[in-house]
Write a structure and sequence with these properties.
It is a single chain. Helix content is 25%, strand content 21%. With 321 residues, it is an alpha/beta fold. The protein has a single domain, classed as 4-Layer Sandwich (Purple Acid Phosphatase, chain A, domain 2), CATH 3.60.21. Helix 5 links the parallel strand 5 and strand 6. The protein is globular and about 55 Å long.
Length: 321
């Protein structure tokens, strides 16, 4: 007698959890930036970028959902290649009397055609075993389809177990959706809060800090004045695109958490990214300019191609003191 659908689902979930190893690595030394680094091709503008964005949007909506229904290589790769990158940072300014804050930074999940819910859920459950105080999701939750979150909400709800909650800012792929604010509503329904040009004050360890989120600089509408209006500049800012960093520094924000670049997604061993999404060479890792810090995660998911080479997916665990 063949096993029931519920039994097959349970076996698939158990085997998925067993595959998630989550090796840990150091995020690496801080790279000090001059503020003058520029790429000759602006990755945010121009005819080539417009063409790339249009193709990406169409493929994400209309091609991959059909193709990857029968073939999902990234669902195989993610649990086998994901790692946790760790670092301890002391941002300036930062509340001096506050206990250390553990932040789990997730970025670029790109849920949808590249991932199956039964592949992502055990990954998220295992990530939450590091017991973060706060989960920060720096954009690109979806690939770009109207129904990308279908089937994923129950697994994503795992992230809300953090004592200070799970917080999200919008990325460019979230605006690929025909109704991007439906994404916000779906996330809110499971307790993941969206910060779009505004901030909140959170209590932790005998003190408090301000957490903010800025809108995507490519397809969104960043409003820096509104961001700082309630409580002044955030101590900690979520920004999908790392190129928001210099404006954040100019406004006195000490730490920015970003994604977007995927670390290139495809790169030769030890080499630079082949696809470079940051105009200012802010590709991945920890960077500093004057007294401000930036952490750019390679992210969990994939876009364009359902595969990563030389830029393994990562979640970032930060201890802030």
């Amino acid at each position: 007698m063949s096993p029931s659908p519920a039994r097959r689902a349970a076996v698939a979930e158990a085997s998925g959890a067993a595959l998630v190893r989550l090796p840990r690595r150091n995020l690496g030394p801080t790279r000090r930036m001059t503020g003058r680094e520029r790429r000759w091709l602006n990755p945010h503008r121009g005819l080539i970028k417009l063409l790339e964005r249009t193709v990406d949007r169409l493929v994400s909506r209309y091609v991959y959902p059909h193709l990857l229904g029968i073939w999902s290589p990234y669902s195989w790769q993610l649990p086998r290649r994901l790692c946790i990158s760790e670092a301890s940072l002391s941002p300036v300014p930062w509340p001096k009397a506050m206990a250390p804050l553990r932040v789990l930074l997730l970025s670029d999940l790109h849920v949808g055609p590249f991932l199956l819910p039964q592949a992502l859920t055990p990954v998220l459950e295992k990530l939450m075993r590091v017991e973060p105080d706060l989960v920060a999701i720096s954009g690109d939750m979806i690939s770009g389809g109207a129904h990308d979150l279908d089937g994923f909400l129950e697994g994503l709800a795992t992230l809300t177990a953090a004592p200070l909650g799970a917080w999200f800012c919008m990325g460019n792929h979230d605006y690929y959706s025909p109704d991007p604010f439906h994404v916000v509503e779906q996330l809110q329904s499971i307790g993941i809060h969206t910060l779009r040009n505004h901030s909140v004050r959170l209590e932790h360890g005998g003190s408090s800090f301000v957490l903010g989120g800025i809108d995507d600089i490519v397809l969104g509408a960043p409003d820096w004045e509104r961001l700082a209006a309630p409580a002044g500049p955030p101590h900690l800012l979520l920004a999908h695109n790392p190129d928001s960093f210099y404006e954040a520094e100019r406004r006195g924000i000490g730490l920015v958490l970003a994604g977007h670049t995927h670390g290139g997604q495809i790169r030769f061993p030890g080499g630079p990214p082949l696809v470079r999404q940051s105009r200012y060479c802010l590709d991945d890792g920890i960077m500093a300019f004057r007294s401000s810090l930036l952490v750019v995660s390679r992210g969990l998911g994939a876009s364009g191609l359902p595969w990563r080479i030389g830029a393994r997916p990562e979640a970032v665990l930060l201890t802030l003191t």
